[in-house]
Design a protein that fits this description.
Largest sheet: 8 strands, parallel, barrel
Oligomer: single chain
Shape: globular
Helix content: 25-40%
Mean pLDDT: 89
Number of helices: 15
Distance between the termini: 33 Å
Number of strands: 13
Low-confidence stretches: none
Strand order of the largest sheet: 1-2-3-4-9-10-11-13
Strand content: 5-15%
Order of helices and strands: EHEHHEHEHHEEEEEHEHEHHHHEHEHH
């Protein structure tokens, strides 16, 4: 691995087929085109734009749930299109990948609601169609209460959802890694043998939540298992991430907290038997960049003015299930737990140096001005690039997930003002040189899960 000073910055775009991103209601801004979310050309254009700027990947978030307060959907959720309506992002990938034949794609799928066998088949299919440019964002389901109701199930408690995720992943590895050997496909027309029967294996696994008994009906794809992404900084989330994830999205409201999360994750991964540096880390970053700091700050103020206290309360409930409007705004924000997005609670609970914590009103205002976003960089191109490189060099984070305020404007601005300066500093690629997404994240030759990853143990045929 290169030294911290020479580390190449990884860059992805956070997108989702809805009108608003990051818990903020910026869809009405004149420069925002997210109302075109159901137009395939919007997604094709996005992919082409990202590839032109040599982004590592486009990350497509998803959820089956919706926001409720007291068992009812707030009117503002429909009025401001907060997570409703949305599309299934997995269906966008083939068209986007065909238009941008080097860009990577990371797609969200839930370990609570997606059966392992069907989910494995979908990702294997995408990995074939993209020639190995796919990652899986492993989630235990945001907006879990309403999502569970949509499926007619009781909500699974927070930590148990991570236990389910562990079992789901082990079952998925059995399907994707254990059934077809690398050279099982012969495609021999003259010999009338497409696949060698001796190299296609039955997989049987019974876990506490999931089981499989049969054969994968997709042959081994270029990466076999998609690159495994995960988010969440709760104790349970970090545990699963340390054991299984190849790239973790961290919450980073301050440099000190981000640096702590990076170090903790690497330590936990080593304790789980993985090599140091096995997990790439990225943090959400919203960028408002313009030729001058004054213009960037003016734009930023415009974006923030679009978010109201009403939308902030509803948005916070969407992510956490907590109705901040039911509390005294002057009451301390303390002792609060949720079975939904605990990371969105934890980011407000601890203050550096033992300083007094925020009030409920402070959290409402913080969510109005930041939503669920991570870091925010506002300024001239040199200001923003300086902040980006300082974050990488001082915290050890590997890169950023760009969380746009407006689309396509946020990507256009980063491509025009930030990417060229990162390239000039020798910190960002000028072209794509890797074939698969895993090689892009870890280097040439790293096409499959490494031997110290728990998924590799599912290749029992390799040691038989």
């Amino acid at each position: 691995m290169p030294s911290t000073e020479e580390k190449q910055v990884k860059l992805g775009l956070f997108e989702t087929p809805v009108l608003n991103v990051g818990g903020m209601t910026t869809w009405t801004h004149p420069d925002n085109q997210t109302h075109r979310y159901a137009d395939l050309s919007y997604w094709v254009e996005t992919a082409e734009r990202l590839q032109d700027a040599t982004f590592d990947f486009c990350f497509l978030a998803d959820s089956y749930g919706h926001g409720e307060i007291g068992g009812a959907r707030p009117d503002v959720n429909a009025r401001e299109a907060m997570e409703l309506p949305r599309l299934d992002p997995m269906l966008l990938v083939p068209a986007m990948a065909h238009a941008a034949q080097q860009l990577g794609f990371v797609v969200t799928a839930s370990t609570v609601f997606e059966p392992p066998f069907a989910n494995a088949r979908r990702f294997s299919t995408l990995d074939h169609l993209t020639r190995g440019r796919v990652g899986w964002n492993v989630v235990t389901s945001s907006f879990a209460e309403s999502a569970s109701a949509n499926f007619g199930r009781p909500m699974v408690p927070h930590d148990e959802r991570y236990a389910m995720a562990e079992d789901h992943l082990l079952t998925t590895y059995a399907v994707l890694e254990g059934s077809w050997e690398d050279d099982a496909v012969l495609a021999d027309k003259a010999g009338r043998t497409y696949a060698d029967p001796a190299k296609v294996h039955r997989v049987t696994r019974t876990g506490p939540y999931f089981s499989v008994d049969g054969y994968s009906n997709t042959a081994a794809s270029p990466q076999r298992t998609p690159v495994l992404f995960q988010a969440g900084t709760s104790t349970a989330g970090l545990g699963v991430g340390a054991r299984h994830a190849e790239c973790v999205f961290l919450q980073g409201s301050t440099k000190a907290r981000l640096s702590e999360h990076v170090a903790t994750l690497d330590r936990l991964a080593v304790e789980a038997g993985r090599a140091p540096g096995s997990v790439r880390t990225m943090v959400g970053l919203s960028v408002v960049v313009a030729p001058t700091r004054e213009e960037a700050e003016r734009r930023y103020a415009e974006y923030l003015a679009l978010n109201t206290r009403e939308s902030a309360i509803a948005s916070y409930a969407l992510f956490t299930g907590i109705d901040l409007g039911a509390y005294d705004p002057d009451a301390p924000f303390a002792g609060i737990r949720t079975e939904m997005g605990q990371s969105q609670v934890d980011r407000h609970l601890r203050q550096a140096g033992g300083a007094p914590g925020p009030t409920v009103g402070d959290v409402i205002e913080a969510h109005r001005t930041r939503g669920s976003r991570g870091m925010v960089a506002v300024g001239s191109p040199d200001d923003v690039v300086g902040e980006v490189l300082d974050l990488v060099d001082s915290t050890g984070v590997d890169g950023f997930l760009l969380e746009p305020f407006v689309q396509p404007g946020s990507v256009v601005d980063v491509a025009e003002h930030v990417v060229p300066r990162l390239r000039a500093a020798g910190r960002f690629r000028t072209e794509y040189t890797e074939e698969t997404l895993r090689e892009r994240m870890f280097g040439a030759g790293h096409r499959h899960l490494p031997a110290d990853h728990p998924g590799a143990a599912a290749r029992t045929w390799a040691t038989a």
